[in-house]
Design a protein that fits this description.
mainly alpha
Length: about 220
């Protein structure tokens, strides 16, 4: 199956193998809901002390690594995708490994690291006593006041560039691949099609082997 890619539809039908926009979006919302307790805990901790973010930022990144890399490698997708009946595969139908899972997360990692750098810079410039005496919203405004102008701009623009470019790519290709799918060489299929995909791959391997044998003869 090297250099081959899965078809758009099942043979003799117009049933797409791939998850549609509604399913993918619902899976994203579910993953966000599952991770929300972690997000709330981190926000509460950061609100307690100016310097807690030095620890909670890397911890959040590590837990996101586990959620978006380790779980998909071992179970085929994040819990949100699995709940929506979706599964992540390589474009040839093979199971993903750590390489593909990591590459899918690379854009988010880059955005998170950039945001952390500006956050740490703001913390380094802020006064702890002033920060601790403020309300939650004022604390965020206070920290962001130390960001350079281009830093505030980048933090706002980069996530939107990622989301809208992913949406455009998703809508323009028949296999419903987002930007992160393009980077990682993956597709998101319906889990109910896994048996059919495996049979398709076996058939393709068999046909390739037969073709090679004919050539050698």
């Amino acid at each position: 199956m090297k250099n081959r890619i899965l078809p758009i539809y099942k043979e003799n039908s117009y049933q797409s193998l791939y998850g549609n926009f509604g399913e993918r979006f619902a899976a994203l919302l579910l993953d966000g809901l599952i991770l929300s307790p972690l997000t709330i805990i981190i926000l509460l901790l950061n609100n307690q002390n100016l310097y807690y973010a030095y620890f909670t930022g890397p911890l959040a990144l590590l837990l996101n690594f586990v959620y978006h890399i380790v779980l998909p490698v071992h179970y085929g997708a994040t819990p949100g995708k699995l709940a929506m009946g979706l599964f992540i595969l390589k474009t040839d139908g093979g199971y993903i490994g750590y390489k593909e899972a990591f590459l899918k997360l690379v854009p988010l990692i880059i955005i998170t690291i950039i945001a952390q750098i500006f956050s740490f810079y703001g913390i380094s410039q802020a006064d702890a006593t002033t920060f601790n005496d403020m309300g939650w919203f004022d604390k965020q405004q206070y920290l962001q006041s130390f960001y350079p102008f281009f830093g505030r701009t980048v933090i706002v623009i980069l996530p939107n560039v990622l989301y809208f470019s992913s949406l455009i790519l998703f809508l323009l290709n028949d296999r419903k691949r987002s930007l992160t799918d393009m980077i990682a060489g993956t597709v998101v299929v319906h889990k109910r099609n896994l048996d059919w995909i495996e049979e398709y791959r076996k058939k393709e391997v068999s046909n390739t082997s037969s073709h090679n044998t004919s050539i050698s003869e």
